[in-house]
Amino acid sequence: PLLRLLESQLQEQRREHEEEMEALRNQVDAMQEEVEKQQQAFLQSLQLSPEIQVEFGLQREITRLTNENLDLKELVEKLEKNEKKLKKQLKIYMKKVQDFEASETMLPEERRPHDHNMQVAVQRKEKEFQGMLEYHKEDEPLLIQNLII
To answer: Is 132 part of a structural domain of the chain?
Structure first.
């Protein structure tokens, strides 16, 4: 029984080896055909006049650049899509911050959190001011003191 098992394993390995060899032979044949085609194309291009060789080279370069351009357009579209998504998220967060600030100003002074160290870094659209200053009535003494200093 052991001898039969070893014999069957050996036959199985031999069969797998032969299949691998056949696949490799096919691959080598395909590569040889491709090399022959490239050699023929090269020989034909050598026989062409210099003007035609230049035109052929330009066509290849145009094709390469067109493909590169398409890849770059895809990348730009992807980045623009991501930019729109990020702008939407920013608007949502800006609205949340504004709602939070509005709710804080509506709270009585005693119930407001006194954590002045907490800063929210949010970019806002530039507003054009014309010499007027908006402030809360209770901040007037601090504002005057800062203006004087």
So the answer is: no
> What is the predicted pLDDT for the residue at 126?
62
Same domain? For 54 and 86 the reply is yes
Clarify whether residues 54 and 101 are in a common domain: yes
* Residue 143 neighbours by CB under 8 Å, 6+ apart: 133, 135
pLDDT recorded at residue 103: 81
Mean pLDDT of the chain: 82
d(CA 88, CA 82): 10
pLDDT of the residue at 40: 85
In whole angstroms, what is the distance from residue 125 CA to residue 136 CA?
A: 22
Residue 30 sits in the same domain as residue 65? no
